[in-house]
Amino acid sequence: MSLPLSLTIAQAAPAAAPGNPLFSFLPLIALFVIFYFLMIRPQMKRQKEHRNMVAALAKGDEVVTNGGIAGRVDEVGESFITVEIAPNVKIKLQKGAVSQVLPKGTLKAS
């Protein structure tokens, strides 16, 4: 007797209305927007600044490499530069290994 009653109650329950699919993807879209503004965009900005800095390297610039070696640019090539780190001591580096360009006269002061 309880079986037909439970079937009747189950059939009487209204079906859930299908929601808008946009609302189900809204948290995912919001998460992507947050990642874009907090991680992707600043990284792209730093890459662009580094690319411009490396492209503007010229003879006589004082630079610091990623390894912490400071020196003066002696020669600029297509993808390599020669840096003089001491009198008559020159090393050849990839342009991308330059982490920053120092103001003129910084190496003489230290």
Task: Describe this structure as you would to a colleague.
This protein has 3 helices and 5 strands, in the order H-H-E-E-E-E-E-H. Strand 3 and strand 4 form a beta hairpin. The chain is rod-shaped, with a radius of gyration of 31 Å. It comes from Fulvimonas yonginensis. Its main location: membrane. Belongs to the YajC family. It is found in: Cell membrane.
The coarse overall form would be rod-shaped
Radius of gyration, rounded? 31 Å
Strand content: 25-35%
- The percent range for helix content is 40-55%
Number of strands: 5
Order of helices and strands: HHEEEEEH
> Which regions are unreliable across 5 or more consecutive residues at pLDDT < 50?
none
In this structure, how is the largest beta sheet organized? 5 strands, antiparallel
Query: Strand order across the biggest sheet?
Result: 4-3-2-1-5
Indicate the mean pLDDT: 87
Secondary-structure arrangement, i.e. CATH architecture of the largest domain: Roll
The CATH class of the largest domain is Mainly Beta
End-to-end distance, in Å? 96 Å
State the CATH topology of the largest domain.
SH3 type barrels
Number of helices: 3
Q: Domains counted in the coordinates: how many?
A: 2
SS class: alpha+beta
Transmembrane segments: 22-40
Protein name: Sec translocon accessory complex subunit YajC
Subcellular location: Cell membrane
Family: Belongs to the YajC family.
Offer a concise description of the structure.
By secondary structure, the chain is of the alpha+beta class. The chain has three helices and five strands, in the order ααβββββα.
